## 1
Amino acid sequence: MTRPRVLVARAVFPEVVARLREHFDVEDNPSDIIYTPAELIARLQGKQGALTTGSERIGADLLAACPELRVVANMAVGYNNFDIAACNAAGVLATNTPDVLTETTADFGFALMMATARRMAESERFLRRGEWTRWAYDMFTGSDVHGAALGILGMGRIGQAIARRGALGFGMQVSYHNRSRLPAETEAELGARYVSKAELLAQADHLLLVLPYSADSHHAIGAAELAQMKPTATLTNIARGGIVDDAALAAALRAGRIAAAGLDVFEGEPAVHPDLLTLPNVVLTPHIASASLATRRAMAKLAADNLIAALTGGVAPTPINAAALLRPS
Ligand code: 8YV
């Protein structure tokens, strides 16, 4: 029997590629070129599987042009780069990497929120510029995190892990808004109160965005929502670019409509809205919330586990659309 052929679309840990080679004929990408859509289609010819990241878009055109493709394994929990309806229609299994990154990503979200509230990046730039010549009573005064009102928009696994940190570690009053409300016992365990989106915006001292990106969540935070927040509030986005209207956010930050923002994700990243780069009251990081070494290894391993199981007759551990594929058409 011929071995399945897979494409590893971006550079990943060599041991993960080596493990895939035990099962498959593997084309990898050690020089980490980001393939254009046409190159990706060309490289996927004759391949049954692909290990992808957020930079590869798997849509109807690609699936139509790659009829042998059976499994796409995303090395990410978010999968807005996949058209799941098109995968279902093509009978292609899509998988992601939930759970393994939850705590690491929550750590980073909390850290980014704290850095934003306490003006760490701004004050560090000041120090590096050699401008620190004396202490002053109001130098880089920010807002407290402990005891403050933490608002979480999107209450999946990562949102819940952030709620725990806020409620249990920092004595915060945690409110959340989500498409569906959590069971009462989960709310009690997290110490989190369900509120409307309008209430969340109005109450939060620190608002964290942890919801998936979709047409529904596009610009969930725009000028109108920013106008409902407290002028002293901070906004932290570790979810996806496009959930926040970056131009509206830059305008709100410039006008002092909100105090500060922490952003790990951007509309059109790796490009960053030029106005954000010029503002002092924003902490900018390059989409690294899941980037602890151990977690990135675990994500790559889980993506490989999914490919290996799905292409060798096993059951993929973390499928996105397995149920849809089993449904009779
Ligand atoms: C990834 C992420 O690093 O898991 C996600 O959804 O955003 C990050 O952990 C990124 O998507 C690359 O695949």
## 2
Amino acid sequence: MAINCLRATPKIPHPSNPNITFSHSFLFLSSNSKPKRLFSPIRAFSMSYDKELAAATKAASVAARLCQKVQQTLLKSDVHSKSDKSPVTVADYGSQALVSFVLERELPSESFSLVAEEDSGDLQIDSGRETLERITKLVNDTVANSDYSDSNLTTEDVLRAIDNGKSEGGSCGRHWVLDPIDGTKGFLRGDQYAIALALLDEGKVVLGVLACPNLPLASISSDNKHSSHDKVGCLFFAKLGGGTYMQPLDGSSPLKVHVSATENPVEASFFESYEAAHSLHGLSSTIAKKLGVKAPPVRIDSQAKYGALSRGDGAIYLRFPHKGYREKIWDHAAGCIVVTEAGGVVTDAAGNPLDFSKGRYLDLEAGIIVTNQKLMPSLLKAVKASLEEEKASSL
Ligand code: AMP
Ligand code: MG
């Protein structure tokens, strides 16, 4: 049965006067304007998303501060071994609670649906009590140094904020999509991670924010030499039809960014997961060779790869999880719009666009590939040939 999504969405503001709202039916009947790059009259008027984007950048920035604090303590401390997962647990829950709290505070009049990685189950049992108290303290310490310093969250508030994230998403209405710490392995190693937040409207990603506290402001392309003195901390943000911007996480002015314009694979470098368990490095290497890429892979954790790609640090991102792994929407929604609004293309291994409207999972063909529009046809050819070769050799 077809589901009527229109009833599930709120009224739409007038594009130049936020005090005026239209109902969807009015738009269907009376709007004959045809603005550029729009899908339908509905989108014509719902495209602004300005206040949602402002709320999302604020939420991700506040959560990034919490994560930075935990990572700095973790790296300084000799008490926690790298295999101790508790700091990342505390930061994960704390980040999710904060994003949920800030979005609700900033957008009080909207119905709130959040699809997020964590739930509070483990914190509700006796053995989780101490962790819950640590998270609540961390959240309140962060809130105290923010625009919300008038607030003090109880443990119950924190549990409720975390459990806002239980939504199943889908193709109707609006859903926020959050990975509170994407790249937890990188977080524990002291490397890259991201707070990744996106908004789905009727199944489409309409805005995305990536806070990458450890990503250098300078390029991380394979031929760029890094130093520990490089300034780090990037915030990428994009909304449908509005382009992609990057600004330092410390708040200075944003710059519009674009993906690499290279048409020549010999000049292109490619990104992939640091963790071999997350993506088949051997297959990426075969694809890159077939395409003619000469540079070695740049391996970093998290959706920081999408951010780096959106500003042209590399030209290609290849992700081929091991058989049976199901990708989650929060691992790609924000990254996807950050790259596409910067002029890139994100598809599965067969060249299909990613579909974020099916719930918490992305069900896709074999893997995810990202590049600019010019390189995509030859990349797809190289991917297809490499996958066929692999299939033939396994027979
Ligand atoms: P990356 O740092 O790009 O490898 O991506 C990190 C994300 O990969 C994590 O947030 C996980 O959600 C996801 N992940 C976890 N296990 C796997 C796996 N076996 N294959 C692919 N991705 C995974
Ligand atoms: Mg993740």
